[in-house]
Amino acid sequence: xxxxxADVIIAGAGPTxxxxxxxxxxxxxxxxxxxxxxxxxxxxxxxxxxxxxxQLLSYRGLLDRxxxxxxxxxxxxxxxxxxxxxDLSPLPDPPLRALHLAQPRLEQLLDELVRERGGEVRxxxxxxxIEQDDAGATVAVSGPDGRYxxxxxxxxxxxxxxxxxxxxxxxxxxxxxxxxxNRLGQVTVAAGVTMLDNGDLDVVxxxxxxxxxxxxxxxxxxxxxxxxxxxxxxxxEDTATETDDNEPMTLAELSDSxxxxxxxxxxxxxPIRLSRYQFQARRAESFRTGxxxxxxxxxxxxxxxxxxxxxxxxxxxxLAWKLAADIDGRAPDGLLDSYHAERSFAAARTMxxxxxxxxxxxxxxxxxxxxxxxxxxxLTDAPALQRLGSMIAGADIRYPLQNPNGHNMIGAFLPDxxxxxxxxxxxxxxxxxxxxxxxxxxxxxxxxxxxxRVDIRTVAxxxxxxxxVLIRPDAHIAWAATVGESPATAEPGLREALITWFGAPxxxxxxxxxxxxxx
Length: 519
Description:
Elements: E1 3-5, E2 8-11, H1 15-26, E3 31-35, E4 48-50, H2 52-59, H3 63-69, E5 74-75, E6 78-81, E7 84-87, E8 97-100, H4 103-116, E9 120-123, E10 126-132, E11 137-143, E12 146-152, E13 154-157, H5 164-169, E14 175-188, E15 193-195, E16 201-203, E17 207-209, E18 212-216, E19 219-227, E20 230-238, H6 251-262, E21 271-283, E22 288-289, E23 292-294, E24 300-301, H7 308-327, H8 337-362, H9 366-378, H10 382-393, H11 424-428, E25 433-436, H12 441-447, E26 455-458, E27 468-471, E28 477-481, H13 487-502, E29 507-510, E30 515-518
Parallel strand pairs: 1-12, 2-3, 2-13, 3-9, 13-23, 25-26
Antiparallel strand pairs: 4-8, 5-8, 6-7, 10-11, 11-12, 14-20, 14-21, 15-16, 16-17, 18-19, 19-20, 21-24, 22-23, 25-27, 27-28, 29-30
C-alpha cells in the first residue's frame, strides 16, 4: 500500500468535480480528482447549460473558452417547464441565458483547464473507503495498478446521485424517486418524415405529429428541432421499477417507447445522443460531516432538467474559496459550515420550482389539465415570465446573510454593474474585493487593514445601487452600503462583514495617529 498526499481529494470528474478542482487550483490549493470511469464520457447527459454559472465563468475570464467550443451565450427564448413550453422572447432582457455545449465537450474543456493549472485527474480510480480524524482524511482507492491510499485535509464527493462518498460518510439522502422514466434521443430526420415550417412532423402512413408536448393516456411525447435536419425526441412513461441511468440506451428502446406512448411507428434517423433518466427529488441532510463534504448530484437531485449543472458548478464555486481559506489557516470560525447553510438553502429554493414542474406534468385528470391551462395563461404576463426565468437561472437566490442595513444586494450574486473601470482581475484570481462606487475614503481605510486578503477598487458606474459593495470570491455580495449611508453605520457594518468572511485584520489603523500597526 502506498500513501500519497493532496490538499483536497475530489471523487468524481464530472462538471462539478472538475470545476471544484479548477477553482481550488486558482486559489493555490492542490487537489487530486479520482474518477471511476477510465476515459472521458462520450454520451452527453446534457446539451448545454444555463443560469448564473455563465456569468461566473465570465467573471473568471473563462467564458470565451466555452463559447469558442460551442456557441455564443444567448437568451433562452423558449424552454420546457413541467410539460409546458415557456416563451421568454416577449421580455426585452430575458433573465435566463444558455450556452449550447454537449456535456462531454464541457467536461473535456474543464479537464484541460485543471491540467493547465497543474492539477491531476486520475481516471479508472474508485474510492472504496474513507477514514477521518481531526487531522485529515484517508481515502482507500482501487486503481488500474492496484489498491492504495491517499491522505488529504478534506474529501469532497462529486460522484453523483449514487455517491459512494456520501454513503461512506453516513450522510442521509432523503427524498423521493418519481416513477416516470424519460427517454431522450437526438436523431437525424429519417426517410418518411418531413419537418413542416411550423415544426410539426408529417409522418408517412400516419399524418401530422405536432411539435412540442403531446399527452396521451400512456405518457408524454415531445419533439422539437435543435438544428436543420436534426430532431430532439423524448418520451415519458411510468415504470414500477427504478432504472439505471448509466446503462446505455438503444435506438430500438426509444422507438418502442414512442410506439407505446404515441401509438405511432415514428421513423428515427441516425442517433447523435441517446439517454435515459429517472427523476428524483432529494437533498442531503448535511453537505458536510467533519472533513467530508458533498456537492452537485451527490448533494441534491432535482425532478426537472436544465438546472443540475448550474447548481452543481455553483456548489463548487461556493466551496472552493472556503476550503482554500481553511487549509491556509486564515478561515474565520464557521466559514466552512456556511457552505452547507448557503448551498442547502439554494438547493431548497431550486427544489420549489422543480417539484412544481413535477406536479404540473404528472397530473392526468381534468383538474390537472385545467391547472396547466391556467399556468400557461399566467405566463403571458411579463412579470410572471420574468420571475419564472429568474428562478430557473437561480438569479432569485439570495443567501440569508447578516444584513444590518437591509440592503437588497446583500447575499445576492454580483449583477452586471456596467463599470467604467473593471474589477475582473480580482475575480479572475478568486479574490474578494471591496468595490468603492462613491469614493468613500473612510471605507477604503477600513478595508486596507485586510489588504493582504481583500483587493480594493474605486470605480464609477451609472446609477450606483450602493456606495460600496464587498464581493466574496464566489461573486456573491457579503455586504453593501446604502447610497449616502452614514459612516456611523457603514464603517462598523463593513468591519463586521470583513471579520465574518475573511478573519481578523492583519493591520490595525490608528485614526488619531494616522498610521498603521501590523500584527
